[in-house]
Amino acid sequence: MTYGEIIANRRRELGISQKTLAETLGISPGYLSKIERNRMRPSYDVSNKIYAVLSIHDPEQDTDLALDNNITLEILEKRVTNAIYELEILLGYVKKLQNVG
Q1: Does the predicted model carry a pTM greater than 0.85?
Q2: How many whole angstroms separate alpha carbon 30 and alpha carbon 49?
Q3: CA nearest to 6, candidates 58, 81, 73, 78
Q4: Residue 18 belongs to a domain with what CATH number?
Q5: What is the pLDDT of residues 54-100, one digit of tens each?
Q6: How many domains are there within the chain?
Q7: DSSP assigned state of 2
């Protein structure tokens, strides 16, 4: 399964329209459509937002922790900052869903 197929399938599983997901991610529906059709690969930031909003685990994010026994405080701080950012995105999405329902 391709990257775009994973994104599209998960979005459909959650019952989220392309338009709603695009708005939540802060991108255009056309850009999201290109990502889902594998015509474009999203930036690192957009990719992280997609993973967070759709609750998709990115196994690549774990590799340096598994391979590097000398992980630095700086790396851990960046990971915590990214986790907080992802939680904020999810919270925003939940609030949008609450307003719809």
Answers
A1: no
A2: 17
A3: 58
A4: 1.10.260.40
A5: 888 765 554 444 344 455 666 667 777 878 888 888 888 888 888 87
A6: 1
A7: -
Tokens representing 89 are 């995105």
Residue among 24, 22, 43 at smallest CA distance from 32: 22
Amino acid at 6: I
- Residue-range definition of the domain harbouring residue 22: 3-100
The DSSP result for 47-85, as a single string, is HHHHHHHTT---GGGGHHHHH-TT--HHHHHHHHHHHHH
85, 101, 98: which is closest to 26 by C-alpha?
85
Please tell me the distance from the alpha carbon of residue 101 to that of residue 97, in angstroms, as a whole number: 6
Q: Is 46:27 a contact under the CB 8 Å cutoff?
A: yes
